Amino acid sequence: QVQLVESGGGLVQAGGSLSLSCAASGSIFRIIAMGWYRQAPGKQRELVAQKTSGGSTDYLDSVKGRFTISRDTAANTVYLQMNSLKPEDTAVYYCNARLYSDPFSWDEYWGQGTQVTVSS
Known about the structure:
Number of strands: 11
Low-confidence stretches: none
Mean pLDDT: 97
Strand content: over 45%
Oligomer: single chain
Order of helices and strands: EEEEEEEEEEE
Number of helices: 0
Largest sheet: 7 strands, mixed
Shape: elongated
């Protein structure tokens, strides 16, 4: 059993900053990647940023230069620093992890979601 516990988020004015964190716990053998997705009302869930254990980092084009993802490998925790926030960043943000709970098979896990609201 694996759990992803998120914290952070909230309400901020446009141009402001927020940070999110997500800690994975439970039966973790090896993490493949951790990251953040978001879903705005009436829209599909989209990848915001992810960081793989191999060292690669991916960002949604619209957040490049404004958001920074980082990981504390030892603590199985991923962070998302969001700067210069825009109203269009308003969404529920979900932590995501792909990991092996044993040496043979991997699975995908989601956090409960945290609301980020950016007012204009």
